[in-house]
Amino acid sequence: MTSSTCRRKAGRNNSPYSRKDQTLDHFDYVDGTMHVEQVPMTEIAQQVGTPVYVYSTATLERHVGVFREGLSQLDNPLIAFAVKANPNAAVLATLAKLGLGADVVSGGELQRAVAAGIPADRIVFSGVGKTAEEMKLALELGIFQFNLESEPEAEMLSQVAESMGRKAPVAYRINPDVDAGTHAKISTGKSENKFGIPYDRALESYAAARDLPGLDVQGVAVHIGSQLTDLAPLEAAFVKVGALIAQLRAAGHDIRTADLGGGLGVPYDPSQPLPPSPADYGAMVTRVTQGWDARLMFEPGRVIVGNAGVLLSKVIRVKQGAQAPFVIVDAAMNDLMRPSLYDAWHDIRAVAPDGNRIASNVVGPVCETGDTFAMGRDMDVVAAGDLLTFMTAGAYGATMAGTYNSRSLTPEVLVWGDKWAVVRARPPIEALIAGDHIPDWVAG
């Protein structure tokens, strides 16, 4: 294991991006064994242990380039990576070097982004529950914009900003009541969702915000959901935003920014149609926003990091079930929550497949029936000790991990050509135990 300080290796795929290679990543088989860029997955498993998240720098770079190219017809857009998708410092620092800003939803994410080198003036603060302390921190750092989600939040920010002698640049997040057509738990733009203010109350809310001291009302924001596989809901929401911008300007508001959120889906299941590409998305945005005369902002997360990471796991044993064998792996629902939480699909591949396939149930060791990754999945035949990868796990993977069943948090590794480094170590279980405190009246 070495540090990433040498010149980048040659041989990276810099070919033009098109829809047909939308699934491209840098996890490939070389001589029958999966590699990440130029590093065998077996090497990482041997030296770090499993389960472990593994990220590819080349894939991060590619997806940033692809997304930026999709928006190339726009004038100076702000691309603010959704930190919640993957807050690892090394990942954020990589994206910072590529010129991305950050979309944050907590004071902790704000501090992570700044610590990783993302300039505060490229940071947008979203989220329904900002506290006064978080607002103060963001004002001290000088962030680009607060995306307000309620009138009481605007009033609190006004008080905080006025007490500091600052002006807070703000936009209201609008709830356009558009069904994103995605999983209910990651849909954010319907009237029953907790996010934003209702579209039909926007003019009233903006008028009240204009009268609040300490606020600079500069924009409009919208975000209708995550893992969208159809551009139609996004276009419907953006059309409503455009109409609102015109109404707000007619009412005397100086609207200079429009945050169109994120949500563009990525391909998880290879049997399903590909989601729209960033090029398709960019063409739609360019068409719909023509004439807006506002700086456009975007909050991509999954589309940047999803394909750039995998969860590497080892088979503990294979147990024969009533209909299909149970492949019991050392990764669990606390390492990768998405299948348990959303019934999400992740492609499961053997690191060294022998060409044989079988329908299997893939489960983890946690004492929950919900600790299940796949049932009846057609997959590589594996045996105890074999390595498996859960693909497209770079987004909403490690960031949602926990310590249920007193399991240690999953480590993370970043690869750069033939170099790799542990970018978050696996904490020993002793550290988890040491975090508890036994009161004197119990210990005594």
Write the topology of this structure:
Elements: E1 27-30, E2 33-36, E3 39-40, H1 41-48, E4 52-56, H2 57-70, E5 78-82, H3 89-97, E6 101-104, H4 107-115, E7 123-125, H5 132-141, E8 145-148, H6 151-164, E9 168-175, E10 197-198, H7 202-210, E11 215-221, H8 231-250, E12 257-259, H9 278-288, E13 295-298, H10 302-305, E14 309-320, E15 325-329, H11 338-342, E16 348-350, E17 357-363, E18 372-380, E19 387-390, E20 412-416, E21 419-424, H12 429-434, H13 440-443
Parallel strand pairs: 4-20, 5-6, 5-13, 6-7, 7-8, 8-9, 9-10, 9-11, 11-12, 12-13, 15-17
Antiparallel strand pairs: 1-2, 2-3, 4-14, 14-15, 14-19, 16-19, 17-18, 20-21
Helix pairs in contact: 2-9, 5-6, 8-9
Describe the structure.
Specifically catalyzes the decarboxylation of meso-diaminopimelate (meso-DAP) to L-lysine. This is Diaminopimelate decarboxylase. It catalyses: meso-2,6-diaminopimelate + H(+) = L-lysine + CO2. It comes from Sphingobium yanoikuyae ATCC 51230. With about 450 residues, the chain is of the alpha/beta class. The chain folds into two domains: about 160 residues, Lyase, Ornithine Decarboxylase, Chain A, domain 1 (Beta Barrel); about 250 residues, Alanine racemase (TIM Barrel), CATH 3.20.20.10. About 30% of the residues lie in helices and about 25% in strands. The strands form three sheets. Strands 4, 14, 15, 16, 17, 18, 19, 20 and 21 form a nine-stranded mixed beta sheet that branches. An eight-stranded parallel barrel has the order 5-6-7-8-9-11-12-13, surrounded by four helices. Strands 1-2-3 form a three-stranded antiparallel beta sheet. The longest helix is centred in the middle third of the chain and has 20 residues.
